[in-house]
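BUG: 3D viewer hangs when loading the predicted structure for this chain

Environment: internal workstation, default settings.
Expected: structure renders.
Actual: progress bar stalls at 90%.

Input used:
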Amino acid sequence: MPTSVNVAVIYYSSTGTISTIAKAIAKDAENAGAQVRLRKAAELAPQAAIDSNPAWAEHARATAGITEVSPDDMVWADAVVFGTPTRYGNVTAQLKQFLDTLGGLWQAGKLADKVYSGFTASSTTHGGQESTLLALYNTIYHFGGILIPPGYTDPSKFVDGNPYGTSHVSGQGDIPVGEQTLTAARVQAERVVKFTRAVKAGLAAEN
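C-alpha cells produced before the viewer hung:
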C-alpha cells in the first residue's frame, strides 16, 4: 500500500487568480492520492480597500466559506504548497503574517523535514514571479524544509518556462487561468505528492 501523504495548500488571493490555482493544485494532489487541506490566509486589508475593487469584494464573498489557515495545518501536513500573488517581487503581507506566527513550531522543530513548494501570479510577464517564489523559498530554508520545485521535469515546463513554481500572468484580472497554468499546477502537485511519499517512507524506514 502506498505511503499516506497529507498536503496543505495554503494561499492568499485578493481577486481570485491564486485561489483558482490553489483549488487546481488541491484537486490534482487528491487525484495523486494525497489527503488535502485547502486553506486561505486571513485578510488584513481594511474593508474599505476591499470594497473599492469590485473583483476583490466579489472574491471575498465567494470564498467566505474556505477555512482560514492555522498553525495546526502545518503540523498536520507532510507537504505544504504556498500560493501568493507578487507584491513588489515579494510575498503578500497576508501570507507573511501567517508565516510570522510559526516561530513556536519552528523552534520545536515541527516545520523541518517536510516538503514545500510554491506558486504565484503577477500582472505582467516580468512582474516579479521569480523573485516572489525565491523570497518565499528563503523561508523554507530556515524551516529546514525540503524544497520540491517543478523544475524542467516535464515537457510542458518548456512551454510555461517557470522552473520555480506554477505561475500565471493575469493582466488587470482580465486574463483567466487557462490550460497552460492548469497543466503546470498538475505537474507540480503530482511531483510534490511523489516526493513527499518517498521522503515520508524513507524517514519511517530509518526509525
